[in-house]
UniProtKB/TrEMBL annotation, chains A, B:
Cofactor dependence: pyridoxal 5'-phosphate
InterPro entries: Aminotransferase_I/II_large, Class-I_PLP-dep_aminotransf, PyrdxlP-dep_Trfase, PyrdxlP-dep_Trfase_major, PyrdxlP-dep_Trfase_small
Lineage: Bacteria, Pseudomonadati, Pseudomonadota, Betaproteobacteria, Burkholderiales
Superkingdom of the organism of origin: Bacteria
Protein name in the entry: 2-aminoadipate aminotransferase
Keyword Chaperone included in the entry's annotation: no
Entry keyword set: Aminotransferase, Pyridoxal phosphate, Transferase
Pfam family, one: Aminotran_1_2
GO process terms (BP): alpha-amino acid metabolic process
Organism of this sequence: Bordetella genomosp. 7
Domain spans labelled Aminotransferase class I/classII large: 62-394
GO MF terms held by the record: pyridoxal phosphate binding; transaminase activity
Keyword Transferase among UniProt keywords: yes
Amino acid sequence: MSFAAPSYAFAAPFQTPAASPIRSLMAYAMRPGSISMAGGYPAQELFDVEGLTIASTQVLARLGGCLQYSDIDGQASLKNELARLSAERGVVCDPGTELAVTGGSQQALALVSRVMLQPGDHAFIESPAFPNSVQALRYTGATVHPVASGPQGIDLEQLDEMAGRIRPKMVCVVASFSNPCGATISRERRLRLLELAVKHQFLIVEDDPYGELRFAGEHVPPIAALADGQARQWAVYISTMSKTMAPSLRIGWLVAPAEVRRRCVGAKAADDMASSAWVQEIVAQYLANGRYHEHVPRIRAAYGLRCDALAQALHKHLDGRVTFIKPEGGMFFWARLNGQADATRLLPYAIEQGVVYVPGKAFYADPAQADPHAMRLSFATMNESLIAQGIERLARALDACEANAPVSVSLAA
Amino acid sequence: MSFAAPSYAFAAPFQTPAASPIRSLMAYAMRPGSISMAGGYPAQELFDVEGLTIASTQVLARLGGCLQYSDIDGQASLKNELARLSAERGVVCDPGTELAVTGGSQQALALVSRVMLQPGDHAFIESPAFPNSVQALRYTGATVHPVASGPQGIDLEQLDEMAGRIRPKMVCVVASFSNPCGATISRERRLRLLELAVKHQFLIVEDDPYGELRFAGEHVPPIAALADGQARQWAVYISTMSKTMAPSLRIGWLVAPAEVRRRCVGAKAADDMASSAWVQEIVAQYLANGRYHEHVPRIRAAYGLRCDALAQALHKHLDGRVTFIKPEGGMFFWARLNGQADATRLLPYAIEQGVVYVPGKAFYADPAQADPHAMRLSFATMNESLIAQGIERLARALDACEANAPVSVSLAA
């Protein structure tokens, strides 16, 4: 006997689950022979397996002491290491009252969102942005307003005007090498953003997964590192080990004013009690071993070469047909098709040719504002030769698309 | 120059962070020579360090393949093992559509709460209950109503009456060896609870951390295992490795109707992207190695002896002065002082004597309903001799308390 599923009365943000256009591309990206510029994944072959194995083996020798329930805000060993690392980036904090370990930067953002936002509240996020960041804000029931972002990062004129009108509680940015744009906010504009935070009394939540992956240009400190006086009360800094150590650790952290951080820890108690103390000890040991500072320059150097290769290939095979600004760090190019073809129409041709990217529209909180000609190209996961080959394929795909050639691949809308 | 902290406009559930009366006792519980019956921790000396080391070493040999971003709902290896384990408990499910790996059972409860509840909604939880479970419900902004629970578990008459009136979306219970009561709901009453779920259209969320730790009496299947027909659509089962393998793994799981589970996975994407694939592989390997089924009987046997020792000591040293029902599994006794002394007034005397417990009132969602004479005594973390000694100390503390003797310890209210 079978029964029809009842109509569950889900909470409003979950009534119609959002599809994940990026995840749905993964099947194509994983096809043998396919060159994927679609993922937001770091380069797997660059993971420091040896260093992690050493740290893990050291922790195994004292495993009996790492298995019990642990402090919600994180292991003391790791909090101290992360406070040191944050201070090196200019974000000085007290690990006991201003820092907490989280399940990646995603959980850090989710926790801050949850303690600040409820239905009827407003939050701003740069647009385009990483869809899971938008979701973390939306799932609180608050209204999320996109603020246009370009090569300079978030539009501060628009932000100022909108903030005066809408009174957001939070403004979320990836200030260095943003996902998907690869854009970096300059020091002057970061200072201006801090002024706006004080003026409009909103928390700036800076997600900084890529900041250490600068391979060109001049260093710019995190926003929280530039905050003085009152502005310090409005700056939250979050970061992660996912792009420098490994995503599967699920270790990130937040640095926030004590009153905000205390509530985030309370939220985490009800969310998952703590991040794995075992894994935290491995990460702390890895940092204490000095492997982190040995390893990050390797990633930075490799990504720099890959970024150069992508820029060269775009010049060589698609000169005049795409526009882009070469990023100075991180993992992503934001490219724009100059012609009639839009990135969604091009995609099946690209897949047919064996190359995959993410159409830009996947990154707009408001689809009506999406730039149909934009695309995100990741250069992190392929070597230079594959990158060149991928862009050659993309050029062939664009030829076919512009010629309105028949195409064998059909994608769900 | 220093600035006063601004008044942040926190979301309503976070405006006044809840204190954790249990955590605040830990300082006393950790004092050298102190006997703690306060924690909800499993016995540390029983962790299968050898088995976990073996599994971890096996995973280290293939670590390079366990470091990348992974599926939100869990590693296939672990989902299959957990589906098998759930099926052994009578909860048969499709690991692809009805099961998801979570950050302990705490995250499972938080995810279900979040997809179901929003401000204006209602949820029921048995009372007394684990405070973090109450918080997971409250943090959604929904109203949480306690339903009285006793030696038989949740009061089904009261539940039926309240459900007709209040229309809750969720009802949360620990059906086997509850925390703090040690109570188990009988098979007949589980079936009746399923009828009520269909009648009132609420999800039963059964948190089952202790079900395998039965050392006396007759096995009762989980509620979801007893659900037939329409009732299956209203039964959610959640469990954890925290009490059988180790809390610091932070690995739990949920089994839910596909429509509910799908949204929980969407919520998890925005919460923490996934649980650590590395740890998931260790847990899957441990299960595949057969260590789990070898190890759980050891915990069960040890806890059975400790439970007996606690019952004997209560008879010997506090006969007639406390009332209790001996649990058939799990980790907790719920005891009630028969005389004038209440459990909060007794506590400083107990700490002075070197024994710590949690006053029962910490477990009531509505403090006005709290039984001031109740206390939770954990028997999990001490051997039989320490348990006997702890209760001897408690008896001395009760003498001093009833005699209104001066006491050196002073606790915050």
